[in-house]
Specification:
Layout (H helix, E strand, L loop, with lengths): L1 E9 L5 E11 L1 H7 L1 H9 L5 H15 L3 H19 L3 E4 L4 H16 L10
Parallel strand pairs: 2-3
Antiparallel strand pairs: 1-2
Helix pairs in contact: 1-3
């Protein structure tokens, strides 16, 4: 299982805030689909095999009971929204996770000072 962040976006012309609401437990495949832009970068760089890419798409269609055209429309819509939002300046609000994020940052800094190796993520 993976933890997938659920955010609330408040947008206006002057300031935008992304607030972390919760973290959902999802399967690894759903998490990779949820971060499709990053997944596509890994596919293009060879870190994710073509067969795995096809599996991700099939999984989305099966879970959502939809066709490939529906998946394609979802991806296009999601990228358009990401591109629009990326042009704005955002403030992050960790919401109920603020103290946990601060603790994780401190822990990571401590591990780096001790020379601990970085954890490598697997897909």
């Amino acid at each position: 299982m993976h933890g997938h962040e659920v955010w609330k976006y408040e947008e206006d012309k002057a300031a935008c805030t992304a607030t972390l609401l919760k973290v959902d437990a999802v399967c690894r495949t759903c998490h990779n689909i949820g971060h499709w832009g990053n997944t596509l970068l890994m596919i293009r760089s060879g870190l994710v095999q073509h067969e795995t890419h096809l599996l991700f798409r099939r999984h989305f269609r099966r879970i959502n009971r939809c066709r490939q055209a529906d998946f394609d429309r979802h991806v296009i819509s999601s990228f358009a929204e990401w591109e629009r939002r990326s042009k704005k300046k955002w403030k992050l609000d960790w919401g109920p996770f603020t103290s946990l994020v601060a603790e994780a940052v401190a822990c990571r800094a401590s591990r780096r000072q001790q020379g601990a190796p970085r954890v490598k993520l697997r897909v």
